[in-house]
Fold this sequence. Notes:
nucleus (chain B); HLH_DNA-bd_sf (chain B); Transcription factor HBI1 isoform X2 (chain B); bHLH_ZIP_TF (chain B)
Amino acid sequence: MASADKTINTDVPEKDVFAIHFLQSLSNLRIQNLFNSPDTTNYRVRKIKKAAYVSMARAAGGTSRLWSRALLRRAAKGNNKIVRFPRRKRKVTWKISSKRRRSDQRAPVVEDAAERLRNLVPGGGGMETSKLMEETAHYIKCLSMQVKVMQCLVDGLSPK
Amino acid sequence: MLEGLVSQESLSLNSMDMSVLERLKWVQQQQQQLQQVVSQSSNNSPELLHQILQFHGSNNDELLQGSFSQFQMIGSGFGPNYNMGYGPQHEAMDGCISRTSSCQMEPVDTMEVLLKNGTKEDRPISLKNKRKQEVKTREEENTEKKIKVEADTESSMKGKSNMRNREASSETSKETLKGVSEIPKLDYIHVRARRGQATDRHSLAERARREKISKKMKYLQDIVPGCNKVTGKAGMLDEIINYVQCLQRQVEFLSMKLAVLNPDLELAVEDVSVKQAYFTNVVGSSKHSIMVDVPLFPLDHQGSLDLSAINPNQTTSIEAPSASWESQSQSLYNTSSLGFQY
């Protein structure tokens, strides 16, 4: 069968790295002094959620992962910032068209589930299915780490 | 014979216009040498074939592999000889040949003719009839897919292990050859077609890709909890999607909770204490230096402020802590650290 496998590398940094990034982003939020004026909780919620995702992307690998890159780009676009990433060869549209055309013939069960995954995982639109699986694995790990951090924070802050 | 060879070669290799002329010239040279060899050859078939290999060798990559199976050549001995000295031309032509895999039969016939002239081989050389070939797709050279596919059909198992050895050694030597121009380490993923399955290149590549995907899905299965009970790709994928959605919803929920719990400024202030709690819980004192980078907030009128001052590394404008503060901080560390243990 298949030999010469490359072991999939999905190492995720420890919890405290996530914690540091998240808290720093929260303090940035506070320094921006946004919380004074807007009263709606929704606004704050959205800000915090965005901060959570951005900090997760930064903590998890910065620009070395496709999903984190897409996340950061999306966030930066919202802030009208220009983000520069180190150039990588990415023939996005070419890949999509060539893989998707045949993808419906290839195991349609897998492929439409992959479509749904692509909608969920940031940056999934430009990836082939096997790459998508790797990114999903890493994304899941980072998400669960982020959830743990936030849970800790909430537990620490909630009144006993 | 010479013209026939050349014309058939040109027919099969006409996909690359630029190098056809070069190739033709090269082929002609080889044919001349080959004729010499054939005329000089002894009656010993392995030797003849060896010589033929060396001169004619990489020109007809697949056909020679097919012929090997019939003649039970010595396994690994031919590997390094076979490929030496035919570097760049060799690869270009192989790439060409592999794309025209349907034309393989004609060169096989010519080889058959050659061998019949020189040998006393009485075994029927039915290269046409037997479908056993080693199909090496060189897609990875052209499309950078980096999958190498071998197909064994079930028909003849003669010399199969020899083939494998030769293939492995020829691959490694090819890899070293390629290493000059390309990335040094190319991982070829060997896929063997099973009994009764199609052996054309596309389905093999498909199969390789599907196995890659299933391997990654197994890896995902270990990560996602509760995926073991569900069998089948569809169920597993649904579980995975469900899990990702769950996690995202959890993040949203927790951010809502955070926003509600700590309106306005308190949140930022608490950061410091929480950071300290993390560090005491998770890591030793090595991380305390990071605390110096913590932004200093105007820490007034908050009860938990005292904690921030207690950290010895931190330089703030607040006065030095007293013993009572230390005890308070310890208690708070303990209570908050309880929540941080997972």
